Amino acid sequence: MIENTIDAKSIRAFRELLDRSSRIVTVTHMAPDGDAVGSSLAFRAVMQRMGKDVTVIVPDMIAPLLRKVPGAKEAVDATRYPDFAAKLIEEADLLVCLDFNALHRIGRLSGLVEKAKAPKVLIDHHLGPEDFAQVCISRPQDSSTCLVLCKVICGLGLFSEIDKPAAECLLTGMMTDTGNFSYNCQDPDLYTITAELVRKGADKESIYRRQFETHSEDSMRLNAYAILEKMEVFPKFGAALITLSRDELNRFKYVKGDTEGLVNRPLAIPEVVYSAFLREEDGYVKVSMRSLGNFPVNELCSEHFGGGGHLNAAGGEFKGTPAVGQQETLFRSTLKRK
Ligand code: 5GP
Ligand code: MN
Predict the structure, then answer these.
(1) Is the pLDDT of residue 338 over 90?
(2) Distance (Å) from CA 237 to ligand 2 centroid
(3) How do beta strands 94-98 and 120-124 pair?
(4) Contact 79, 94 (CB under 8 A)
(5) 155 close to ligand 1 (CB < 6 Angstrom)
(6) I need a labelling partner for 23 at 20 to 30 A (CA). Which of 79, 205, 301, 324 fits?
């Protein structure tokens, strides 16, 4: 059924660890997205059916639109409950690391996970995983961690344990990391697995509405403002840039997730192959980049903004404000590459 399966050695090693564990904890990256939340909650749901106690920890708040993913209310937010999260990690007998490749990506949890006595399993799809897990299932060729996790669950012989809520969690990540199957979506396995998840009751239509077509009035106006007033297009460089300052975000009562997808929008312009979005946070600027074809925004983000990601979707950050100087750096690096 599935062409690109997980190697038998990794599956065996994971199964051995699972068999020995009763207090399992999952951790995922900061500002958890659909793939991070979906993979964590799906793993928990399947393991619970196997009688395992699994706690999902997120390093910070789950964005409002993702709070409706089945089981999201059960996740422990380490920003609100730091001591509880620390205790859970210390006392876990297995740590499952989902959707990140480097410990710094889990923010305040990184030190705790690094020194935890429990063995670690990494299930992820980012390039270049750090060497911190006993079992490392890293598949940059797969479009989402949820897709990797589906294959892992298959490999463990537990696909029948995916119930409707777990199927919805998995499909959420598969859809959000591919822009509802519009990029990184040429893998036939993606559709084979989607068909199975829909068969299990996952309601793709309602996931689509929830994750892609639900916006508060403020967020709609913020995105419209960003494009109308703040988008700069540089046809000569094949580039576009959007910046939003703290004041602008406050004006539209910005909450996490409100600008999701905004960075993709300029790629609709035929001249644009590379799009950058700078959003001012408290004391630093979050960088988000997208590209088409072979333009490596992950290299740009790691060279200039201490970040990384995938060839066509990457991010990073820098200290300061999204000022003109930074924009120039951004485009000089583009020029070098052309
Ligand atoms: P987004 O633009 O949606 O925030 O992030 C797109 C992708 O870029 C993420 O899936 C992640 O792989 C990567 N990414 C975003 N921010 C960072 C960052 O600060 N550091 C690293 N290493 N990767 C990031
Ligand atoms: Mn992901």
Answers:
(1) no
(2) 28
(3) parallel
(4) no
(5) no
(6) 79
- Ligand 1 centroid distance, CA of 309 (Å): 5
For a ligand 1 pocket test, name from 126, 184, 298 the mutation site with the most ligand atoms within 8 angstroms of its C-beta. 126
CB within 5 A of ion ligand 2: which residues?
Answer: 35, 99, 145, 177
Given a contact cutoff of 8 angstroms between Cβ atoms, the answer to whether 126 and 98 are in contact is: no
The atom of ligand 1 lying closest to the CA of 289 is 2
Q: What is the Cα–Cα distance from 99 to 36, expressed in whole angstroms?
A: 6
Residue 307 Cβ < 6 Å to ligand 1: yes
Cα 220 to averaged position of ligand 1 atoms, centre (Å): 23
Quick check: helix, strand or coil at residue 215? coil
For residue 302, give both structure tokens: 């790691």
The pTM score is 0.92
Quote the Cα angle for 61-63-65, to 5°. Answer: 150
Q: What is the edge-to-edge ordering of all strands in the sheet holding 308-309?
A: 231-234, 239-244, 274-280, 284-291, 313-319, 308-309
Domains and CATH numbers, the chain: 8-212 (3.90.1640.10), 217-337 (3.10.310.30)
Q: What share of the chain is helix, strand, coil (3-state, %, to 5)?
A: 45, 20, 35
Task: Give the pLDDT confidence of 197-219 residue by residue, as tens digits.
Answer: 999 999 999 999 999 999 999 99
